[in-house]
UniProtKB/TrEMBL annotation:
InterPro entries: AAA+_ATPase, ABC_transporter-like_ATP-bd, ABC_transpr_TagH-like, Bact_Polysacc_Export_ATP-bd, P-loop_NTPase. The keyword Nucleotide-binding applies. This is ABC transporter ATP-binding protein. Keywords: ATP-binding, Nucleotide-binding, Transport. Pfam families: ABC_tran (PF00005). It comes from Phycicoccus avicenniae. GO terms for cellular component: membrane.
Length: 306
C-alpha cells in the first residue's frame, strides 16, 4: 500500500496479468514548449498603444506543455497518464504518435504508434456500421478482411442497433466506443488512447478491458490518458502523473492513481500544503528510480531499431 495516499476502500479490479517484455517506447528528456500570446503588451514600443492593441500585437509567454520527461515503456504494459487539465497529457501522446514535434529530447519506438484521439476522424453523416467499414479499409484491410472483422468490432463497440444510425446522432460515449473498437481491431503494437474509454458504461468497459488485455498479450503496449483515477486503476498496470508538464510519479497504476486522487482531493479542499507535500514526496520517489530507467533506455531500443 502506498504511503503517498490515504487508504481508501479498494473497489477496483486490477487488469489481467501479462508478463512485461522488451522496451517498445523510449521517451528521453522530452520537452515541448509553445510560445503563446500573454494577452499583455510586450512593451517593445514599435507602434502606438491603440494601434498595437487593434493589431493584436501583444507579448508572448512560453508554456512548458511537457518538461524534461523521461521513461521507458515495455511490451505487455498498459500505461495510464493522469494529471490535471493542461498538465501535458495529450501533448505527450501526440509527440509519441509523431503528430507533434518536440522542442528538446526524443522519442524512440519499435513500431509506428496508433493514435486514438477523442476527435479521431469519422464521418458524422454515415452510420456507425459504414464508419467501421471505412475505418478498417483506411487501416489497410481488404474489403473481404473488413467484412470478416466487422462483427468483432461491433461486439467490442457494444452499441447495439445504433450502428445503423448516423454517427452524428451518437452520444460522445457511443462515438468513443466505436472509435476504440475500430482502432483496437488493428491489434497495434503501440496503441495511444486519449480519453476514449473514460465515458464507457460497465458492460462496454468490460469488453474494452478484454481487448486491451489481448493487445498486451500479443506483446503490445497501451497508453491511456484519463482524468478518472478509477479508469486508470482498472485498465492499467502502470501509470505516470504529469503536473504542469513535469513527470512527478511513475509507478504501479494503483499507487499513482491513489496519490493523484489524494492530491486532487486536497487541492479541492483548499489543503494546499498537504497537496504540495504529496507532490514533493512523489518527486522524491521518482528521482530514486529515474537513473535506472535512463540506463536501460538507449541500449534496448537501439537493439530493436537496428
Ligand atoms: N497547439 C498549442 N499551442 C499552444 N499551447 C498549447 C498547444 N497545445 C497545448 N498547449 C498548452 O500546453 C499545455 C498542455 O496541454 P495538453 O492539452 O497537453 O494538456 P492535457 O493534460 O491533455 O489537458 P486536458 O486534461 O485539459 O485535456 C496547456 O497549457 C495548453 O494550453
Amino acid at each position: 500500500m502506498s504511503d503517498l495516499a490515504q487508504d481508501t476502500p479498494d473497489t477496483t479490479s486490477a487488469p489481467a496479468d501479462v508478463p512485461v517484455g522488451d522496451p517498445t517506447v523510449s521517451v528521453r528528456r522530452l520537452s515541448v514548449h509553445y510560445r503563446v500570446p500573454s494577452g499583455e503588451d510586450d512593451g517593445s514600443g514599435q507602434a502606438p498603444g491603440r494601434l498595437r492593441r487593434r493589431l493584436g500585437m501583444t507579448g508572448t509567454v512560453t508554456v512548458r506543455a511537457v518538461d524534461d520527461v523521461s521513461f521507458v515503456a515495455r511490451a505487455g504494459e498498459a500505461i495510464g497518464v493522469v494529471g490535471q487539465n493542461g498538465s501535458g497529457k495529450s501533448t505527450l501522446l501526440r509527440v509519441i504518435a509523431g503528430l507533434e514535434t518536440a522542442t528538446h529530447g526524443d522519442v524512440l519506438a519499435t513500431s509506428t504508434p496508433m493514435f486514438l484521439g477523442v476527435n479521431a476522424a469519422l464521418m458524422p453523416e454515415l452510420s456507425g456500421l459504414q464508419n467501421v467499414r471505412l475505418g478498417l479499409l483506411a487501416m489497410g484491410r481488404t474489403p473481404a478482411e473488413a467484412d470478416e472483422i466487422v462483427p468483432d468490432v461491433l461486439h467490442v463497440a457494444g452499441i447495439g442497433n445504433a450502428v445503423h444510425r448516423p454517427m452524428k446522432t451518437y452520444s460522445s460515449g457511443m462515438g468513443a466506443r466505436l472509435r476504440f473498437a475500430i482502432a483496437a481491431s488493428a491489434r497495434p503494437e503501440i496503441l495511444l488512447i486519449d480519453e476514449a474509454l473514460a465515458t464507457g458504461d460497465a458492460a462496454s468497459k468490460e469488453r474494452s478491458e478484454e481487448r486491451m488485455a489481448q493487445i498486451r498479450q500479443q506483446a503490445g503496449t497501451i497508453f491511456l490518458v484519463s482524468h478518472a483515477a478509477q479508469t486508470i486503476e482498472e485498465m492499467c498496470t502502470r501509470a505516470i502523473w504529469l503536473h504542469d508538464g513535469e513527470l512527478v510519479l511513475d509507478g504501479p497504476a494503483e499507487e499513482t492513481a491513489r496519490a493523484y486522487r489524494w492530491w486532487a482531493w486536497n487541492v479541492a479542499k483548499g489543503e494546499h500544503e498537504i497537496a504540495a507535500d504529496v507532490l514533493e514526496r512523489c518527486r522524491a520517489r521518482l528521482r530514486a528510480t529515474l537513473v535506472r530507467h535512463e540506463d536501460q533506455t538507449g541500449r534496448h531500443i537501439a537493439r530493436h531499431s537496428t
